[in-house]
Amino acid sequence: MKAFANHFTFEFRTGLRNRNLLLMNYLFPLGFYIMMGVMMGQINPLFVKAMIPAMIIFAILSATILGLPSPIVEAREAGIFRSYKINGVPALSILSIPTLTAAFHAIIVAAVITATAPSLFDAPTPVNWAAFILLCLLSAFTCAGLGALIGVVSANSRVTILWSQLIYLPSMMLSGMMVPTSMLPKALNKVGLLLPPTYALHAFQGLGQGQASGVNPWAAVAILLAGGVLAFGMAIYLFSWDSQNTTRRGHPALALLAMVPYVVGAVLF
Amino acid sequence: MNDTPIQVRDFRKVYGNFVAVDGISFEARRGEIFGLLGPNGAGKTSTLETLEGLRASDGGALRVMGVDPTRDARKLRDLIGVQLQTSGLPENMTPGEAMRFFCAYHGAAPRPDLLERLGLAEKMSTQYYMLSTGQKRRLALALAVAHNPPVVFLDEPTAGLDVATRIELHDMMRELKAAGTTIILATHDMAEAEKMADRVAILLRGKIAASGTPRELTAAGSGFTKVSVRTEGQSLAGPVTFPGVAQQAVMDDYAVYFTTDVGPTVSAILAHIQAQGDALVDLRVERPSLEERFLEITAVGAAR
């Protein structure tokens, strides 16, 4: 427990000390939130209706999909995991603690957004706070699992950026964060259903905000949960201590299994 | 109590078709500093990393404190301390955090006193990437020994360090040895190996080319002992022969003799000086170094 607490404290501090992580965890999502609140509130009034969940999901994506994978790859390449292995740091801690701290930073930003958006931009507050908080945690867990998986299977930092952007950019455009999914062509709607933020937004709208949702919110919750468990499970299974000495237990392509719940969702909805 | 904490029997390590280590055997005793020497690619790192549980063995038997490092990696963790050649610490971690972090995973109390002793007290809150090379090496050593492991692996422990820090680290190694810690020292610094190691093994192309105490190894070579003599007069100026001397020369006012039999040579030189009514100003005897022997062994190996 002491080891866990020490490790958690260090990783949490790293999220503030490391300039890149500070940018991804706080500066980028909060700056974007202010910018979107000022701009989009005037251009698209529908945006304000979904502003709090949309900006929370954006903050989660920024901390987990953009911020989390690179440090995992860099630590493996620098031999830090070898040193951890020699000193008895388990693989589960190596993956779960940065995942938890990334999610924790995202939750802090989520709290700031939730507290300020109603007064700053007239954004509607959640009607079901318990569901809203649980969905924040679930979305953070699912995206962090995916971020950890990207870090584990990426051969180097360049590949990490590629995989991260492959999830991040379509999520921005197709999940309903910027434009309501009802306004998108049907084909793009289907593509959007391959991404976790789409389900997170539907769940937030249906359960947290008490608004109409294009996808059954409980089904969205189930898909998010399954996606998160699969992503994190595959990250632990495919984890390697270093890029030279150890062989993976499975081919990196197995990581695609983490997408199965979203593919099922795209078929069903 | 384990009297031979490190036991290696017919160890093999293969990468594809390349045999990195080809059936080597050695032991390191309790409280011994065992030097593992060899040129790059000789198999040192493969041997060390397999003993540390980082690589799997491809043959033979390895035991560290009775534990098979390939199969019982978990048991191994608290039995060994490893100072890695590369840093192995996150850039944003401070020495104080690193000490608490690793000691917590070993279930040991942090040792800030070690950081103080190694001159890192003022750097306790400095992030790793801001430390100098020497400070990083000292931190790595402190972390390797903080949980009092019975076996410590040191990979080039003093590379890039200033003289004072090198002496401090050597003192610390002697203290560990006196306390019964077995140290496996991998180094390219032959002077360090000769000074610190009780026994050494020289690896060449995956095999042990020579092993023994540094004195035994140097004595077994064809190197000559160098005897340099300076006198007040000219008693050694002419062509004088002494027993055991194979070559002689004059260097900077010194008559220099290369001998295979140092005792009779020195006795004969002194007797000659006295007989000539001359006076001795300086006499120096330099044994062949481990470095010379190492070069001899590796040159023979390369020629094969």
Supply the key terms.
heterodimer, A: 269 residues, mainly alpha, 0% strand, globular, B: 304 residues, alpha/beta, Rossmann fold, Alpha-Beta Plaits, six-stranded mixed beta sheet, 10 helices
Short description:
The complex is a heterodimer of chains A (269) and B (304). Chain A is mostly helical and 269 residues long. Chain A is built from 13 helices and no strands.
Structural commentary:
The complex is a heterodimer of chains A (269) and B (304). By secondary structure, chain A is mostly helical. Chain A has helices spanning 2-17, 19-43, 45-49, 51-66, 69-77, 80-86, 91-121, 129-153, 157-174, 186-192, 196-208, 217-238, 260-268. Chain A has one domain (2-268). The N and C termini of chain A lie far apart (43 Å). The relative contact order of chain A is 0.13. Chain B is globular. In chain B, strand 11 (245-251) and strand 12 (254-259) form a beta hairpin. Chain B is of the alpha/beta class and 304 residues long. Chain A binds chain B through residues 2-3, 5-7, 10, 13-14, 17-18, 75, 78-80, 82-83, 85-89, 241-242, 245, and chain B through 49, 52-55, 73-74, 77-78, 80, 82, 84, 86-93, 97, 100-102, 104-107, 127, 143.
Layout of strands and helices, then pairs:
The complex is a heterodimer of chains A (269) and B (304).
Chain A: H1 2-17, H2 19-43, H3 45-49, H4 51-66, H5 69-77, H6 80-86, H7 91-121, H8 129-153, H9 157-174, H10 186-192, H11 196-208, H12 217-238, H13 260-268
Chain B: E1 6-15, E2 18-28, E3 33-37, H1 44-51, E4 61-64, H2 73-76, E5 80-83, H3 95-106, H4 112-117, H5 133-145, E6 151-155, H6 163-178, E7 182-186, H7 190-196, E8 199-204, E9 207-212, H8 214-219, E10 225-231, E11 245-251, E12 254-259, H9 262-275, E13 280-286, H10 290-303
Parallel strand pairs in B: 3-7, 3-8, 5-6, 6-7
Antiparallel strand pairs in B: 1-2, 1-4, 8-9, 10-12, 10-13, 11-12
